[in-house]
Structures are given as C-alpha cells and as structure tokens.
Octanoyltransferase
Amino acid sequence: MTSPTFPEIKHLGKADYDSTFAAMRAFTDARTPDTRDELWIVEHPPVYTLGLGADRGHLLAGASDIPVVQTDRGGEVTYHGPGQVVIYLLMDLRRNKPGGKLYARQFVHKIEQAIINVLQAYNLVGERVEGAPGIYMAGGEHQGAKIAALGLKVRGNGCTYHGLSLNVAMDLAPFSWINPCGYAGLETVDMRTVGAQATLSDVQQQLAEELVRVLAANE
C-alpha cells in the first residue's frame, strides 16, 4: 500500500491547457505544509507553450494554426498534443526525503531517470544531453532526436508545478513548425517512430508509477 506521504496519482483525462495551468497554480497557492503531493496525468489538445524566457522567433511557418500560451515555467517553446503523456508534478521539495531535502537539480535528475527507465522497458535507450533538459535517443537511426521534454516552476517556498511530456504515438508535424526548446533543426520523435508499440494509457500509468518510485528512492 502506498504511503500517504507519497504523491497521489490523478488522471485528468483529456483537458485543455489553459484550465489545467490555472488549476496547477490554484492548487499550489492553496496548499499547506500538510498538503499531499500530487501527480496529474493529462492529454492536451494541440497547443504550443512558451517558457518565461522563450523567444517567439522559435515559432516558425505553420505554427499559426495552433494556439500559443505563455506560461511561467522554465525553458523555451514546446508542443503538447494527442498521443503524448503529460505529467505535472505538484511537489513540495522542502519535505524530508531519503538523505534530506530534495534539491531542484536532484529533482530534475530523478524525473529524467524515470523517463529513461520507462523507455528501457520498451527496449528503447534514452539519454540526457548536458545543458539541454529532456531525454534524447541514444542510438539508432534517430540518434540525438528528442523524445521527452521537461519544464518546471519551482516557487521560492520549494513547491513545484508543470512537469514533463513523453511522446508516445503522435502527429509529429507540429514539432517541425517550431525550434523545439529553442534548437533549430532538432528532430523530435515518438515511441512509435522508434519501434515501440505502446498504448498511451499504459505509458501514462507506467511513467507515473516510476516517478513515484524514483522520487522516493534513496539514490
């Protein structure tokens, strides 16, 4: 049985980005030191989101047909759409974790590790790239292509929101209408493109459970 101190996994189903973004901020505004952490699993309709320092010049020809939302996360422009796992992490990093308080850099590392572990379960090898948050293919025909993105907001009180996206089985064309995360010409792939047959619901649940496991581990 999961300890109540572990994050609660919530399935939001299909939900528009604007209302989910507002709900994340409202949850974080209202939480107290006793509020249980939560992981929100959601699938968004097509939307581009901009990080705080994002350059709108990274929106290219073709992007005008998809809504653009300014957010308060870190990072540049990214795309969310059907067939993509999105998990938002509403966490309090001040809480005692194994070995002490969880720092933002450790938090990001653990999130990335959870994605790598889930990809490995489908015989896919993902890797980190120094200075470029997210997960990239480590070999094969699509070596260097981005398969998962990461963007977080960490408030001064240690509470986080926003999170990650992992591409499962998508229409990848909208990624070609931006410079993903600010990198011109960066190839973006999904699990289907690199040979993994996986359902969105399976990957949603596997990744959420792996995040809970990795975040609780004393590593």
Q: What stands out?
A: The domain at 8-216 is CATH 3.30.930.10 (BirA Bifunctional Protein; domain 2). The longest helix spans residues 104-121.
